[in-house]
Amino acid sequence: MDEVDRWLDWIHQRHNEFDYRYIYLAYLAAGAPVARQGEITVTVHPDGNCLLRAGADDRGLVLAGDQERMRFAEHLRQRYCSDRYPSMRAWETAQHEDFLDEVPWRFGGQ
Hints:
By secondary structure, this protein is mainly α. It has helices at 2-15, 19-31, 65-81, 88-107; strands spanning 41-44, 49-53, 61-64. The chain has a 3-stranded antiparallel β-sheet.
C-alpha cells in the first residue's frame, strides 16, 4: 500500500482544498470500475486492471483486478474513517461541511 499512500499524499498536496472530493470519488470508482471522465478518470483495461487518475497531470494509480480494488477501498476506509466515521460517505460529508465552514476564511466571503 506504499504506492497507494504516495498517490493519496500527492492528491492532498496537488488538490489541496478539494482533496477530499478526489479521494471519495476514487473510493467510488474502485467499487465500480467503469470508464469515466471527471475529477477522477478511470480507464478500464481488458485484463481487469483499472487506472485511476486525479487530473491530467497525474500519472495515476493502477489497481490490478478485483482483489486489489477491494484492498484499496478498505485501505481508504481505514486511513480516513478509522473509528471516527462509520463510512467513506460520512467522512466525505464531514470534510465538505468543514470546507463550507472555511469558505469565508479561505476566499474572503461572508
